Amino acid sequence: MVKKKQIIWKEIQKAFNTGVSYMLPSVVVGGVFLAIALATGTPTDSGMEITNQFMKDLNDLGSAGFAMMIPLLAGYIAYSIAGKPALAPGMILGYVANNTIGSAQVKTGFLGAMLLGVLTGYFVKWTKNWKVPATVKALMPILIVPIITTFVLGVLYVYVISVPIGAVMDWLVDILSNLQGGSAILLGLIIGAMTAVDMGGPINKTATAFTLALMAEGVYSPNGAHRIAVAIPPLAVATSTFIDRKKYTKEDQDLGISAFFMGLIGITEGAIPFAVKDMKRVLPAIIIGSAVGGAIGMANGVEALVPHGGLIILPVVNGKLWYCISMLIGTLVSVVIIHFTKPNLNNDNELSK
To answer: Per UniProt, which keywords does this protein have (predicted)?
Structure first.
């Protein structure tokens, strides 16, 4: 029984790695185009405003790359487990996870997509054992299996899985609302941790909604903590690839450059590939680092006056020095944790892949 669990876990780990490897080009395309476009923008109350039409188009191309990122992740996780019949359902369900759906309008982001990718893979794997007539067998991989899989897991997600997630989101908003008058350090820790825990997913968006609501009331410090924290995960994993090269494949090292630029413009999703491949080490590290950065920012009264993050918004930050210091310390905390928890690659050949 224990051996079977180990086999399944290794199969899931392999699936996550496969999903990440197919997702990487989409992350790079999206990140590079968004970085170039946003770098030409002007900070406003509604975020970075891009006025040049060519840069607007480039921004749209980058957004398309990011929109494809999560569906590709889920689709190829499912594909790794069950082959070609699982690819389309996995991508469809990954898209569903990354967009609001149902009466509760819940979005679960990359965590939901990973779960649906695994469920899709094993559901399709189970359908391969069905005894069907020879005339039906040819239709199974291209018609019957994709339709049944998408329907069953889609309904399960919309009516079962997403409902408790929506309830958790409401609970978190209530908790955060009650904390706004409390300890600045505690609030900064919570906002920073929530920012990093799912990197652009529903928990991150809950923190965003909370800080935006306070901005509307003229309170900008929580937004400062949040905007510090959004940059820390990609900056941390990027820095780790620069200084701990023996812990990463050549592919990861190249991706670290892209993650670095994403961190500078406040795109947290640049850390997702690293977290997916080594969740038990990378995810706690970036959560702790973001929490530390957010807490330092709150404690020192840093205020971000626009709903964006990273160093790109420095001109519209009150407390510029502490904004940079908080981001630096949070990043270094994550880097140190990764350094001492993540082992070197066993096979030196993996470094040159």
So the answer is: Cell membrane, Membrane, Phosphotransferase system, Sugar transport, Transmembrane, Transmembrane helix, Transport
